[in-house]
Specification:
Keywords: Membrane, Transmembrane, Transmembrane helix. The chain has 256 residues and is mostly helical. It contains nine helices and four strands; from the N terminus they run H-H-E-E-H-H-E-E-H-H-H-H-H. Strands 1-2 form a two-stranded antiparallel sheet. Strands 3-4 form a two-stranded antiparallel ribbon.
């Protein structure tokens, strides 16, 4: 059973044209679980696939965009020319734009461990927003003015401000707040000191987002109860590595 609180259900916009049971959290959890199964079934029925790997991994237009973006980002990390970076940013942003139209197909949330509920829709929204943020940061040389660039950075940062915080959910401390503080630090650093995380590291963040978003999408199709927890742990550890090797050195450099 998927465990989800009434506040999270509201936050995840599960009230779209539906009647929510008025009982306790258990009934809400069952309803959310049924919605997840229905969303997955709808996704499988209506998606257009161009090719397929195995029985459950089908690549539609979004899958193709994501694959091309991942290849382009990997090449940009190696090549680091202006052309390769522009292609990686363009394909990454295109993948994020297309993904924003598929959020209705994402299962609302999963109870991955005691005290930890992974709100998948919020996580995918954050990944989309972070790809846009990375794209704007990488495109700094192409902005006509510093003011316009800083305005775009602040606008891209805004989606990371938590609108409602569930202090009882371990996910808040493992992912939501660390992500907010990391992006906020970079935004302030860019706006105040003009110094920032280097473009190569920003592309590494985009590569992380593309790969782990794919893994999460894959976990929804693999019928194994441990899969969401495995992907969640790997994603959390990956995010921690980004913080340790990309964000923290910049923090120490600024403070030092």
């Amino acid at each position: 059973m998927v465990l989800i609180t009434s506040e999270q259900i509201k936050a995840q916009q599960l009230l779209r044209h539906k009647q929510v049971p008025k009982n306790a959290v258990t009934d809400l959890a069952e309803w959310a679980s049924k919605r997840s199964v229905a969303a997955a079934a709808t996704m499988q029925r209506h998606r257009v696939s161009f090719f397929q790997l195995g029985k459950s991994l089908k690549f539609g237009l979004h899958g193709i965009f994501g694959t091309l973006a991942t290849i382009a980002t990997a090449w940009a990390l190696i090549d680091e020319t202006e052309t390769s970076v522009l292609v990686a940013v363009y394909l990454g942003s295109l993948t994020a734009v297309y993904a924003s139209f598929l959020l209705g197909q994402v299962p609302p949330a999963s109870h991955v461990a005691p005290g930890i509920v992974a709100p998948h829709i919020d996580a995918f929204k954050a990944a989309i927003a972070l790809i846009f943020y990375v794209g704007i940061r990488c495109m700094e040389p192409y902005f006509p003015s510093e003011l316009l660039y800083l305005s775009a950075v602040v606008a891209a940062w805004w989606p990371f401000v938590p609108k409602a915080i569930d202090w009882a959910n371990g996910n808040t401390y493992l992912l939501v707040l660390p992500r907010f503080f990391a992006v906020t630090f970079d935004m302030i650093n860019v706006s105040v000191t003009g110094s920032s995380i280097q473009r190569h590291d920003l592309l590494a963040v985009q590569m992380f987002l593309l790969v782990f978003s794919f893994l999460y999408s894959l976990s929804f199709r693999v019928q194994h109860k441990a899969m969401p927890l495995i992907i969640y742990v790997v994603t959390t550890l990956g995010g921690a590595c980004l913080g340790v090797f990309i964000v923290m050195p910049e923090v120490f450099r600024v403070l030092g």
